[in-house]
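Input record (Table S2, row 288):
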Amino acid sequence: MKELHRASDAQDWAFEQRRAGRRVALVPTMGALHEGHLSLVRRARELADAVAVSIFVNPKQFGPNEDYHRYPRTMAEDLARLEAEGAEAAFLPDADEMYPEGFRTWVSVEGLSDALEGAIRPGHFRGVTTIVAKLLHVVPAHVAVFGQKDFQQLLIIRQMAHDLNIPVTIEAHPIVREADGLAMSSRNRYLDEAQRQSALSLSRALAAVRAAAADGADQQDDLEGAAWGVLDPEPGVVPDYAVVLDPDTLSPLSEGWSRAVCLVAGRLGATRLIDNCVFSRAGEELPA
Ligand code: PAF
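Output record (pantoate complex):
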């Protein structure tokens, strides 16, 4: 696996692959790789001939009081895992490479970036879309694979790629869960045992919403009520939101909705976790 630190070297690598007629996939990550990330790499290998993974803890998507400095950094293990999964290139820039002195161009998707995570983490999505746009220029991939766990991020990145005519397919990959239902996240490692138990209420809230739909609930308030019915009694979680929305626009459900997404977020001590599921009127889980 090639380890590339300079944007120009990563660009040369990607263009070389394309000239050789190979399909290129990019999996953007912030490292601290877990099974969820590795499943993105496996999916990327199914979709392309050459897979590049970027590892960059992007300072521009963290607020001043967030966990940028303590975000887990496990580079040696990450590289060993990527090599074992058959990634062909790892793009590992430092902050000066991506944001050199004088950097002043931002990419921002209006509307979709303002609610939910955007309201709680002002500026977060502007940082995400800016770095993802840059990464897609550095590694001009045919396909880029993102996890569904960051559901709002996924919609925003799809919108950005469409609006900016970036010739890439944005592929969503399902959430990978621990055996007890907890969605895998690099931030799970911050949790102590009690917090980890409390964190299960997020996936239980999603299950309760799907069960309510299966029982015939189809009004947004009733579906959201099913999520709150799990989150409210859980003393270890301070919920930020639990909403049921249209999965394409994040607007309220229409009368005759056929697909919905439930998005939940909560704090366990200093750790924020998010989770979601897309489901049908009959409560079946659906792809993003
Ligand atoms: O989902 C993430 O890990 C990050 O937001 C991403 C897409 C790699 C951009 O920094």
